[in-house]
Amino acid sequence: MPETSWRLFRFALPLRISLPSGARVRQGWLIQIQQAEAVGWGEVAPLPGFSRETLDEAGRILQDRLFRLTSFPPEITWAEWAEAVEQSLESVPASVRWGVELALAQCQAARRGKRLDTWLAPDPLPMVSINALIPIDWREHPERLQAIRAAGYQAVKVKVGQHAPKEAAQDVRLLRNLLGPEVELRVDANRAWSLREALTFAEAIADRNVAYLEEPLRDPAELHDFVRRSPVPVALDETLAEQPDVPLHCWEGVAAVVLKPALIGGLLRAWQRAREANALGMTVVWSAAFETGVGTRGLLALAAASHSKAAAGLDPYHWLADDVVYPRLALHPATRVADALTGPWRLNAAVLEEVNEHA
Ligand SMILES: O=C(O)CCC(=O)C1=CC=C[C@@H](O)[C@@H]1C(=O)O
Ligand SMILES: [Mg+2]
Description:
Layout: E1 4-14, E2 25-35, E3 38-44, H1 55-66, H2 78-88, H3 94-111, H4 116-120, E4 127-129, E5 132-134, H5 142-151, E6 155-159, H6 165-179, E7 184-188, H7 195-205, E8 210-214, H8 223-229, E9 234-236, H9 238-242, E10 256-259, H10 261-264, H11 267-280, E11 283-286, H12 293-305, E12 325-326, E13 334-336, H13 337-341, E14 346-347, E15 352-358
Parallel strand pairs: 5-6, 6-7, 7-8, 8-9, 9-10, 10-11
Antiparallel strand pairs: 1-2, 1-15, 2-3, 4-13, 12-14
Helix pairs in contact: 6-7
The structure holds the ligand O=C(O)CCC(=O)C1=CC=C[C@@H](O)[C@@H]1C(=O)O and magnesium ion.
């Protein structure tokens, strides 16, 4: 069994655009795990306002778990590996599972001479498309919308929950006109509205060809009712983090699931969700919780391996003004996976503080 060694860093990255919480710095923990010659990277960065665990709590649990890491024989199958890792990380918060599982999975893939995507699937997609996330203040910054259009994104997502339903519907109608009929338009209300408000909104945009509406309801107990009555397809996001054990077949009529491994229980849980959704014919949308290049590359690998043709929500990466490793990830509206996942990378010492080393 090869020795496992690891390094742990704390990072703080400046942002170009504020997080939903208003923060202008993205903070988290970067881990590097080495087993034999193989190296894996992961990040643990709870998202304020969305994660249940804080940065310090996650850091404490992470350090404790790093000291207990085991390595697995390189010849074991993905299923055997997944079961062992799952057990070893039981009851660990989502962001910690995401980071540790990602680093371990990359190590295991590398020991078999593969990348994460090619280890997860024999025939991953070579290209993954990305949707642009429109900043909340797009009306005051038309140049940002202009830049999204000029870059050639085929799918965009806009937040609407900060407005009353009628005003939000006006926004969506205006955006549809500005974007033209071809671009896929997704909307996200982040649980802002009552059932009545959400239905008012959905009816007002029903003829605008919106791909889906994410999480409209303040009271998630009414979501089944909304799904039955809404003229616009519905996607789950927060619900998946809140109800990790409810099988997706209980959500009949839901069109899409937005999978954020950092919030819904880690890489393995998210991978299971993707398989479940594929089997039910629900659209799988991989999405970021404002990860650095390390986590975003992990998401790209998962999107490719799950064969999801839906544009992945990885645009938050562009909101970071710097990254934990260089070279920076080059994300395009259609990104070639092999280019994005092929290193080598070097640490960006300017944004990292080494916390602990164990060899
Ligand atoms: O899904 C995307 O296109 C990008 C990610 C994204 O929109 C979000 C990430 C994390 C928290 C929220 O701000 C938001 C969401 O609710 O989906
Ligand atoms: Mg959402």
